[in-house]
Amino acid sequence: MKDISSKTKLSRRAFVVGTTAAAGGGLALGFHMPADAASARAAAANEGVEVNAWVVIKPDDTCMIRIARTEMGQGTRTGLAQLVAEELECDWKKVTTDSITPGQNLARKRVWGEMGTGGSRGIRTSHDYVRRGGAAARIMLLQAAADQWKVPVGELTVSDGIISHAASKRTISYGKVAAAAAKLTAPDPKDITLKDPRNWKIAGKAIKRLDTADKLNGSKIYAIDVKLPGMLCAAIKSCPVFGGTVKSYDEAKIAGRPGIKGVVKVKETGVAVVADTWYRAKSALEALPIVWDDAANAGQSDAIIAAHLREGFDAAANNGDRRNGDAVKAIEGAAKKVEAIYSTPFLAHATMEPMNCIAKIAADRAEAWVPSQNSEASLAALSEASGLPLDKCEVYRSDPGGGFGRRGGSQDYVHQAVAIAKNFPNTPVKLIWSREEDMTHDFYRPISQAKMAAGLDEQGNLVGLHVRISGQSINAFANPAAVAGGKDMRQLQGYDVNPGEAQLGYAAPNMLIEYVMRNTHVPVGPWRGVNTNQNAVYMECFMDEVAKAAGKDPLEFRRSLMGNFPKHLAILNAVAEKAGWGQPLPPGVHRGIAQFHGYATYSAAVAEVSVSDAGKLKVHRLVLGVNCGHPVNLDQIAAQCEGSVAFGLTAALYGECPVKDGRMASLNFDTYHIMRLAEMPKVETIIVPTYDFWGGIGEPTISVVSPAVMNAIHAATGKPVRSLPLKNVKLV
Amino acid sequence: MAKLNINGRVHNVLVEPETPLLWVIREQVGLTGTKYGCGVAQCGACSVHINGEVMRSCSIAVGDLKAGDKIVTIEGLSPTSSHPVQKAWAAIDVPQCGYCQSGQIMAAAALLRKNPKPTDKDIDEAMTNICRCGTYQRIRTAVHMAAEMPAGGKSAAVNGHKA
After folding, report:
1. Does residue B163 register a pLDDT over 80?
2. ipTM
3. Which of A432, A452, A480 is the last residue of a domain?
4. Which of A95, A274, A316, B30 could bond A261 through an S-S bridge, CB–CB 3.0 to 4.6 Å?
5. Is A422:A360 a contact under the CB 8 Å cutoff?
6. Which residues of chain B make contact with A220, given a CB cutoff of 8 A?
7. Interchain pair B97, A400: CB under 8 A
8. Chain A residue numbers touching B98 (CB-CB < 8 A)
């Protein structure tokens, strides 16, 4: 293993569970608070009754369902509420939600479980306990009614939050028995029998989101919008060369500018200007002369990094593999050999809401307002940066304006906001990154290359497959403890032998898939889909190359390798049928197909594209197929599939973060191009659930978008596409 | 000092004339529905109407505005969220994270005011705002749906121009 990185590591510490804290105490009196925090206070004022941790019922029968996971567009809030409501048997029209804070979770010994929302886990790893929470509340509410009426609870029925006793023709609503129910002993969750999902009435349907209204009139408060009494604003620049530090800055040059409250050196790496408004802070920062010490990495470039990765193809040892038979020997002795080298670039998350955080630090209290995918990690970062124990800290939540993996474990902006706010005791300071700063200091999708080789026999059967991926490791940067013994199988996501999470859907008599770690100085992290996107491009595009060499149809060739993978095959067949694979197309239009497994969900896609004589690409149509096991909201699954096409196509068409002089060279949307509406193909989503597992939805389908389109281009031009983005590739 | 007519109300703001309208709307006037996304007129999250035209407020210096300019932000599009575009957006469940949607809605409202029955090509040309969640397919559907709805009567008064 060779490492050319010289990076500044962010310290992390494990989230400590079980410390006591005053729940909800000390909430600052903001006049522009996030809706959820405001609704929590409103709920308290209305004397809603907490039946259990998940369910609060008000006298007017409104059911407030508590949500621990982050909603950042993916629909998890609505999906989790559907699951609770399904078991609760409440009136869906009277459901509201509230996002609990990490301080509340901590104070109650994590009764709401994990808050972190990444890896498409929001629903698939919390469905069981939230449904049991809803069911337990229902059982208690029914028991309370039975006690009041002095009838056996078995004689009661409930529908839409109205409890009925048929024999005596009595009815009572949840709101009337909630107080009595809350005093009962909760049933043991293990003893609760949950509904068969096939009998669901609220979950499993295409129900409207609960959180649309305030996104239509400007009233939704994102963290960037929060205003607090006496609040100051901060703009920051960190050394653009990764690992570099601040040498000096000339504060006198911005003296006398309006509204400036101070200039703060942030750790050793950045400089922040604090002012009464953010625009004044930002424009003063732009006028502030800063001298950087670029340190070791100023000479780094795309060419150096590419060569470093390429060298990994010849390395003697690897950093993890899966193997059966002897692929190298089988390919050497094969009647026909196919070889190709693929590459994918660094990518930025580019959430629409740039990184931001408000911190308010007093002697014995630290508070932060954070758009976070992991509010517990935000709380831990706040505690660490402020030096105050967890029970003296609280994080208030706003739904992030996009996450895509950027706002998870790292919490770099919380550390910075606290470092700045410490200079202004007891004063809230809102740090906002400019778009340029956001693009300069992301935790980028790691760069990689793949050397692919296959051997075919005389009949065109696959006898050996050898994949070697050379690229940067997320774990090596973000979680070195996970790289035990130098092995890092995470980079081979989607190529697992084992079923369940991300299994390769092909078998060959001889197979070797290996990862060679080649780290760079660029900070990396999970980017929506993490390694499935790149690995699907490598495997699925190469499959088309091998099929072509074998003289076989790409779909038929895949089918011949998928006998042991019925779920992979089923979704592949489903999209092929829906898209009319093999049926005639308009002149100039060509199809490509791909399938992949990630986040437990099986995905497949057929793309229809045309390529003009001048090499201009048009993507006409995408048919996406998905089997996520138990679908919770059909319309939100469709929305995620549609969104995944835009996200995947943006990466395929335009996405790259060039490195020049050790720093990122593409710093705003004028060069980091994002696909617009005009380029959006028609997307048709088919959901083919098998109801025997729980899969994720936020990420998996992105992986099949790029390879399906690239394979369609291959079909159109006869030339395989082996590197992304397509804007750099001459298609004809 | 600048005098700005925003959503039918006149605001006197004390600010450097080079300050972009976006930041005056957000920081001096206190309306935060208009979003910062890029600062270079690329993403459209900051879209507002000025005299009925959709404009990217991050790149308009407040000192360059004329006294009579009528500015409408997302908060002023309709007093009851009942503009046809808002109704269609709700019916189709367009937003995901929602951050870009103020700008998308303002762009769509401006398009429909000029072109009440836009074709797909018209929508392609007019709707150039970035949505990172990828709600484009639903935006297209919702624009067509809004075009079929009767124009919202109440919004005209607030807008200061015919809806």
Report:
1. no
2. 0.94
3. A432
4. A274
5. no
6. 33, 98
7. yes
8. 73, 211-212, 214-215, 220, 399, 401
Distance CA B122, CA B112 (A): 10
Same domain, yes or no: A282 and A321: no
One domain, residues A309 and A289: no
Residues A260 and A187 in one domain: no
A359 and A425 share one domain = yes
Same-domain pairing of A313 and A377: no
pLDDT of residue A130: 98
| Model pLDDT, residue A534 | 98
CB-based burial label for A72 (10 Å; 0-12, 13-18, 19+): buried
- Strands A95-99 and A682-687 turn out to be unpaired
Check whether domain B2-74 has CATH 3.10.20.30, yes or no: yes
Domain match, A211 and A266 both? no
Domain boundaries, chain B: 2-74, 84-159
Amino acid identity at A608: E
d(CA B58, CA B64): 13
Closest to A278 (Cβ–Cβ): which among B27, B100, B140? B27
In this prediction, the residues of chain A whose per-residue pLDDT falls under 70 are: 1-46
Q: Among A215, A240, A263, give the residue marking a domain's end.
A: A215
Residue B153 has which token pair?
Answer: 């009567």
Q: Are residues A139 and A238 in the same domain?
A: no
Question: What's residue A216's pLDDT?
Answer: 98
User: Could you write out the three-class secondary structure of A675-697?
Assistant: CCHHHCCEEEEEECCCCCCECCC
Q: So what's the pLDDT on residue A19?
A: 25
Query: CATH no. for residue A145?
Result: 3.30.365.10
pLDDT confidence of residue B1:
77
Structure-token match 């090596």, residue found? A476
Hey, what are A84's tokens? 């609770």
Beta strands in A79-196 (DSSP E): 95-99, 156-159, 162-165, 170-173
Of A212, A278, A279, the CB nearest to B93: A212
- Structure token digits, residue A432: 């906002």
Q: Which residues in chain A touch residue B35, judged by CB atoms under 8 angstroms apart?
A: 222, 224, 352-353, 401
Confidence of residue B151 (pLDDT cuts 50, 70, 90): confident
The architecture in CATH of the region B84-159 reads: Orthogonal Bundle (1.10)
Residue A46 has a pLDDT of 55
Contact check, Cβ <8 Å, A646/B136: yes
Range of the domain at A398: 223-295+355-432
DSSP state of A32: B
Q: Is residue A27 one of the residues assigned to a domain? A: no
Beta-strand pair A55-57/A49-52: antiparallel
Q: How far is B60 from chain A (nearest CA, A)?
A: 14
Contact A397/B at CB under 8 A? no
The tally of domains found in chain A comes to: 3
